[in-house]
Amino acid sequence: LLVGAPGEQQTNALACRRDTRTHAATLCEDSTRVVVMASSASSSDPSALVELFKSISIDEKLAKSSVQNAKFAANLATVIAAAGCAETGLDDRKRGNLLYTVAGKHPSNALAHRDRVIGDVMRGDLKTSQQLDGVFEYLKAVGEEPLDDARYREAGGVGVVVTEADVEAAFDRVVSEGGQRQKLLEERYRAVATLLKGFRDFGVMKWADGKTLKATFDRKVEELLGPKTEADLAKPAKKKKKPKAKPAEDKAARGEREEEERRRAADPYAFFSKPEENNVVHTTVNFSDGRVMRISNTKRELDAYLGRTGGKYLTRFPPEPNGYLHLGHAKAMFIDFGLAAKHDGSCYLRYDDTNPTAEKTEYISHIQEIVEWMGWKPFRVTYSSDYFERLYELAVRLIESGHAYVCHQTGDEISEYREQKRNSPWRDRPAEESLRLFQRMRLGLVDEGTATLRMRMDMQNENFNMYDLIAYRIKFARHPHAGDEWCIYPSYDFTHCIVDSLEDISHSLCTLEFEPRRASYYWLLEVLGLYKPVVWEYSRLNMEHNVMSKRKLNRLVTEGHVNGWDDPRLLTLAGLRRRGYTATAINSFCRDSGITKNDQQFPYHKLEHHARSNLDEIAPRRLGVLRPLKVAIENVAPDFLEVVKAKVFPGRSDETYELGIGKFVYIEKSDFRQEDQKGYYGLALGKTVMLRYAFAVKCVGFETCKETGEVVLVRCERVEVKKPPKGVIHWVGSESLPEQYRPVKAEARLYDYLFNAEDVAEVGDDWLADMNQNSLEIVEGALLGPTFRDAQPGQVFQLERAGYFCVDKDTDGNR
Question: Is 478 tagged catalytic?
Fold first, then answer.
């Protein structure tokens, strides 16, 4: 970064530029960083670029495809110019391909050394792609630090000459190890291809001339095995192939997809970089004046970081305490806490509490409780407000370096100027004046809404997140954690990245809507000279028929469309828990949803699948009827009582509980029909069914209500059967039984989708009108088995043949 006042930066940068007709890019260096001027070749027309690429002996098809990637095309044009071939071309296909490789694979955090690599290619010191790969690995670790010439040459095999005698000696060593000789003698020429593949990477063989290596290798093999026999030359018998129902390409693609799914299922965190690799380029910021800032940790910064942390994975889960956590936060926890746990690292729970007017102690308490319920243990619980003093000091430093200023534009004016890409009238005020005003802001001597501290970034940038973002604003409000100490509060854009750095976070993970903020995130850390975590964005978790926007959730709750933040129809974690979902099921769903950048919108039944799979294992079975229909067993005595054993986990356990059955029982209304039908296994006139865990009964009649015609009583007889009937129905006992066997009266709440539309976002501003008016059905008068008398709120049961139910917190002595 070119340090100095804005006008000086532009002058210095322009003074460093060289003629872009012969140099597509120029490095402008000072004591701290490198700023790369934008390549003029990147704006050339595609046909000119194709001709440029063909001039270094790249075939036309590859040249045309290269132009399709604007970033790569600019890199390749830059490399060609740096090689001095932009005007003269290069009549050397092999060397042209090496330049092509440099454009595509050179580590972007070590661009200061790219000219050295290009020069070595043109001088003939780097002759193969293997040599380039070795050099690139070394440069990736070095970054922009000075090169150790000896290590550089060693990494790329520069100057290494592999003779025919060296190949012969290496062959003898390889064949003598690990039973290779015996394998060759047994399998003969069938084993040669595998041996050669490994031999190319043996010792210095990777630097050998390919033709020399192959010729010597073939000669040594023939000396060992002799000339090929007819058996060696015979082609192996082909296996008969079964006819394919689908094209081979479809099967191959499916196989790759399944393999990727298996790999991600085995370790969803496998693709994340290691902390010791945190010196790769994190982002590139293109300025409107042509400057390009490539931002990364230097090797010195990375070494210092690794010294502080020991190379430990450090992540953070940073919710804002302005609402209840939802399913999307569960995925964030799975990624943040899960990545750290996978590598024996640590994860902070950090409250991102920079807006006191929206935050409440209620939300703070809820978040910590839910994190623990989800099974995650924070390494440390911190608050962004813990760092307010340090953040203020850094803001002062930002002003002093010319990267921030106090602005008096209103919110509307700021928005208007951003739309027009116009600079604030106060953008160029002296740093001393901004410092005095900022100090007055802290002391509470400036009215709320009349001043902000803004970062001097680039109001004409292609990225709107570089439009001089607000760093501090005035709010005369008590902070729920910091109290009354402050009346100026830092913004998210100023706070988030700095606290990530102060807490030595290795991986700063967030959803894709924050991707455009990468530029401002790294710009701020760069100008402050702070360590930079790796930022990686993943897709948001979206569900059909529901919303997870905090703004929309807040409206649903505060306007009374639902019954609080823990309404079971919501996808808040409190709502899901109240509905009976377990942390295990939710985490399983998050794992199954994957960590990807692809848009994700899941059907609700996928979440329900994980809930059912988990509850099937842990939820005790019980009997209960939601809409009771009375049944009289006419051929038993009025005081008849039989105690039966019901299974807690049928088919999996011998554990039982007792039920009493007498002259009267209750069954589900839907389990009786006045007329029997094919495929119906419930009770009907003249039909026999089995009462679950009890005995068989046969319907001999029924009674109806004169006014409504509704069946109010079913008359049955107990019968003995040689073969159990197909129909088995659930039931509960009646009020006439002894107290320990009497049913428990209950209110059942049945939930459906909260919104009618699959994608609520497509409904637009009228999304509240799309709410499903039947999303909650309250069933009064349900009867449950006697064991529910001791059930506690939060316990989940499976009512056999009905579904999973959770005892609600509204349960009291009356219901």
Answer: no
